[in-house]
Structures are given as C-alpha cells and as structure tokens.
Design a protein that fits this description.
Order of helices and strands: HEEEHEHEHEEHEEHEHEHEHHHHHH
Bound molecules: 6-deoxy-beta-L-fructofuranose, manganese (II) ion
Number of strands: 12
Strand order of the largest sheet: 1-4-5-6-8-10-11-12
Shape: globular
Distance between the termini: 49 Å
Structural class: alpha/beta
Amino acid sequence: MRDLTAVKDALKNHRIELPSWAFGNSGTRFKVFSQPGVPRDPWEKAADAAQVHKYTGVAPSMAVHIPWDKVDDYAALAAHAKASGIRIGTVNANVFQDDDYRLGSVCNPDAKVRRKALAHLLECVDIMDAAGSRDLKLWFADGTNYPGQDDISARQDRLAEALAAVYQRLGPDQRLVLEYKLFEPSFYTTDVPDWGTSLLHCQALGPRALVVVDTGHHAPGVNIEFIVAMLLRAGRLGGFDFNSRFYADDDLMVGAADPFQLFRIMHEVVKAGALDPASGVAFMLDQCHNIEPKIPGQIRSVMNVQEAVAKALLVDSDALRAAQVEGDVLGANAVLMDAYNTDVRPLLAGLREEMGLAPDPYAAYLATGYGDKIISERKEGSPAGWGA
Ligand code: LRH
Ligand code: MN
C-alpha cells in the first residue's frame, strides 16, 4: 500500500482546468437546449468556474475560447478571475466557425483564407500575453469530405507553415499544444486525425510544441492509455481534454461513461511521475453539459478525476512490478484491480476536510443556493453558448 500522506499530497497538488464553454448553453446539431442562469459573458463564466474551485479546491484556472470569450480588456478579465480566486488558463483558438473556413483554415487551398486563420492564431498569442496564459491550444476542424477534394500532403505543408509561424511568435515561457481528432466535422480526411500526426508536427516545431489527448477523439476501442504512455515516454504530452463518450465525441462528463479507462490513463500518468503540475502536463476538462446543470456537472467531473487519480495513486507499484517481472499475469492484473476496486471516497472526503473544505463539494455547492441566485440575477441579456 502506498504511503497515504504522499497520496494525499499528490491529490492536494493536482490541478484540473475548467473550460469556460462548459458553463454556457451547448448541444448537438439537433438542438442546443438553453438553461436558466447560464452566464452571459466571460466575467460570469469566471464567477461560475470560481464556484467549482471554491468547493473542490483543485480547479484554480479556466480555459478560454476565442471569440466565445472575446472581451476588450483581457488583463481586466484576468484580474477579475484573480479576484474570484482563479486565473485564466489555456487560450483556445477557433478557426472552425467562419464561412471562409468551409474548405479549411490554415490548410485551406486559398492563401488569403490561410492568412486570415493565421492572423487569428497570432491574435490568440497576444491574448495569452495580456491574460498571462502559458498554453495556446490548437484544434483544427480542417479536413476534406470526399476523396480527391484536396491534396493530403499539400494540406500538411500548409499546416506546417502556419504552425511554424505561430511557434516562432510564442514567448519563451509559452507553449503550443496541438489537439488531434479522428473525424467531425470532416468526414473523409482530418488534417490532424491522430497522435502520430500531431507528434510529427510538434517534433518538427520544437520543444515547446506538445500533443493534447482529448479522450473523445479516438476511434472506438483505441487503447488511449497506450498513446499516453508513448507521449509521456517521448516527453511530448502537453495535456488532456478530459470527457467521456459511449460512441463518438459525445463530450460527456469525464469518467461517466468509462471510469475504468480513466483510471488506466491516470495509472500511466502517475507511473511516469506526470501528475505534478511541474511535469507540464495540463489536465483540462472539455465537456458540454447539454441537459444537466453546468456548475454541478463540473464539480462532479472534478470529483470523477480525483477518484481516478486517487485509485491510481493507491496502486502498489512494487507488488505490480514484481508480478510483472515474474510473468504472473493474474497477479499483476489483480494488483491493478485492487487499486481500482478501492472505494476512495472516504479518503477524498477526509482530504477535503484537511484542506478546510466540505467533504462532499457537490452537496456543499447545492446547499449554497448559488444556482437559484444566478437564475434570478441573469434574466436579461443573451446567455453564452457555442454560437454554432
Ligand atoms: C473539438 C474540441 C476542441 C475544442 C472544442 C470545444 O471537438 O474538443 O478541444 O476547441 O472541442
Ligand atoms: Mn477538446
């Protein structure tokens, strides 16, 4: 059994970043359901994200998405977040919601469109400077829908050219994290479809270009923890976009659909010593609470990650290695399953009390009535959403 003090320290130091867009209205192509009390601007999104940190103690930053979180003064937004007890984290670029990007953004055959997309990416680095953010997260919807529509290699050349221009613009402490996705909205080729493509581009750029693993962006059945182990081994895992899915990019609450997979992923992270913020791996949520209340959904998601991390920290690594070396297949599997089947909720409740927090952040938040307060306060104006 692991040293419980070390386990608790690791859990106390773990940091989970929240996505601003999870607090806004979201949905599918069929319907975006609006919910009462949804924030109307990035200021209110930060206030809601601060609630999640207030009760969990481990979510001190909110990622922003541009232009969904466009404001006139990003330094003022960062100061507002700070006053609310959190900070502005990763800046997400968005070159997937403009008619000009029908045939792609940085991979578009039209140089004028590519220049427009690059200008947005560079503007996002300016925003990072103003907000004090370390990471620029790039996800490209770019791809094609029919064979022959465009040249696969030529599009990669265009992508590499844009990434090099962005990388060159980054400050010394800033990073570019490149997210891959198998498909959607493109349905024949996606220009960054898998970890290999992202890794090749990152290695071509330099040491501050890293890969983002969104847990909803793989083909069914893909062993994500294997990819995580390989990226950690290569020193190129920049972070996670955590969510879960039963079918495609469902963006459901992390750990809701497959808590065992999340545990296996966190086992690889813990084993590689990559849980500590100093490791440079960013643990971000990327979810949409289409039908459930947003703030409670984020709190539950943070708790799901904490439970997977706690179980991974309880793996008896000496016993595991011994069984592995002996070729004791069932013995080794049993060591891992013992940790996974451990009920870590009492440990986490106790840890929160040691941190001066309520043992159950979900119940504690609900008891505040904050949800009802924002419903009554946010009647005017238009609620935030994806604007898709
Ligand atoms: C794309 C994605 C990406 C974000 C968006 C909100 O599917 O995962 O990380 O920009 O969702
Ligand atoms: Mn994502």
